[in-house]
Amino acid sequence: MASLNKIILVGNVGSDPEMRYTPNGKAVKSFSVATNRRYNTASGETREETDWFRINAWGKQAEQCNQFLTKGRQVYVEGRLHARTWEGQDGQTRTSLEVTSDRVLFLGKRTAGAPSEEGELEPEDLPFD
To answer: What is the per-residue pLDDT for 84?
Structure first.
């Protein structure tokens, strides 16, 4: 039986991304993305939830993210979700969910004078509502 591990996120970059290289020279760009959800409680109160995702982009995609992503920039990310487990300083086992990106698109308007960006879309261009 076939299986599928795919996640699609549209959110805002939480901090300026960090670029690093593997020992064999492959680029890796890590950044966080925040997604928000607004909802009304049974009493009619409006609430907002924010979920944070750690994204890892590799190779040419990492280099493009390094060039165009900054804190606050809206971004579309497709990739696969995986768990990373480690032991904290207190001895407790911790787990975080991370996304290894297959595709990153830079959303929103460019700033004046910025170079054209490959893969730039407006939010209304996305294939869902």
So the answer is: 87
